[in-house]
């Protein structure tokens, strides 16, 4: 089957080479990148566009930026490639709600591995501007009371069901971690870079949980901005809660997730030219 497909592709290439032989000869004379780019700009102003497209895309000097100049973002809309084996597991990662998680939770050795993965994230200045708080089984009821009190401060008319839900956010997860961002005062490492480093560490933590076979999710919300809760958890003045990480075994597979195309987050920059006509061969 693969040989038959290759044969059809070869025949198609040969037919296109014959059809656009003139453009291929014209573009084939160019041996420099800028000359090839100028050839394309000149061809784009003539009726020979179909041949110019084929001549450009098959030219050995046509890198991705030149193809993007000709085709725009459409050039990148191709079938998703088969992931390499080391990436296949990572590409399956997704958030799993606490209600879908159960025992067994990660043990101390596995939590340690997750933190080690977080420590391997990019970190300008090696400041480690973050830390992790584990909420063990013996502390969950106290944390549930703190969550309930925070809910009442925010909504004094909260219903019994709302308060129960607030408590469940502390008691339901098999393993519960608090992720704290701890910016340092460093002249050469601005705070925004430290926040990015903390985010990278949090991403690694979640990826490690997934690699170990667990499901995980980060939940933030209004409680992360509550000053009283921050004080009770003994955060420093400059620190803030990024969120609470729930980790556990996946008992119920979440519904399929429609992931965006990589092209929605990936584009190719093409440098602006002050005067493109000067690049056209023969222009004054």
The shape, in one word, is elongated
SSE pattern: HHHHHHEHEHHEHEHE
Strand content: 5-15%
Give the helix/strand class. alpha+beta
Helix content: 40-55%
Task: Specify the number of helices.
Answer: 11
Through-space gap between termini: 54 Å
Compute the CA-based radius of gyration: 28 Å
General description of the model:
There is one protein chain. Strands 1, 2, 3, 4 and 5 form a five-stranded antiparallel sheet that branches. With 284 residues, the chain is α+β, with helices and mostly antiparallel strands. It has eleven helices and five strands. 44% of the residues lie in helices and 11% in strands.
What key attributes describe this structure?
alpha+beta, elongated, disordered C terminus, five-stranded antiparallel beta sheet, 284 residues, 11 helices
């Amino acid at each position: 089957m693969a040989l038959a497909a290759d044969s059809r592709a070869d025949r198609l290439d040969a037919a296109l080479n014959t059809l656009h032989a003139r453009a291929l000869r014209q573009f084939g004379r160019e041996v420099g990148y800028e000359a090839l780019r100028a050839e394309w700009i000149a061809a784009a102003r003539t009726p020979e566009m179909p041949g110019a497209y084929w001549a450009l895309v098959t030219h050995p000097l046509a890198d991705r930026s030149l193809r993007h100049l000709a085709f725009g973002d459409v050039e990148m809309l191709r079938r998703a490639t088969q992931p390499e084996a080391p990436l296949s597991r990572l590409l399956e990662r997704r958030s799993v709600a606490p209600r879908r998680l159960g025992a067994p939770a990660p043990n101390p050795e596995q939590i340690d591995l997750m933190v080690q993965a977080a420590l391997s994230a990019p970190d300008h200045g090696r400041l480690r501007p973050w830390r992790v708080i584990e909420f063990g089984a013996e502390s969950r009821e106290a944390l549930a009371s703190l969550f309930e009190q925070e809910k009442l401060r925010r909504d004094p008319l909260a219903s019994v069901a709302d308060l129960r839900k607030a408590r469940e956010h502390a008691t339901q997860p098999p393993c519960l971690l608090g992720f704290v961002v701890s910016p340092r005062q460093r002249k050469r490492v601005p705070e925004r870079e430290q926040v990015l480093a903390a985010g990278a560490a949090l991403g690694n933590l979640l990826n490690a949980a997934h690699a170990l076979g667990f499901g995980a999710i980060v939940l933030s919300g209004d409680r992360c901005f509550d000053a009283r809760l921050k004080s009770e958890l003994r955060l420093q003045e400059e620190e803030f809660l990024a969120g609470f990480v729930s980790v556990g075994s996946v008992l119920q597979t979440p519904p399929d997730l429609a992931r965006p195309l990589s092209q929605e987050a990936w584009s190719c920059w093409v440098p602006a030219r002050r005067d493109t006509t000067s690049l056209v061969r023969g222009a004054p």
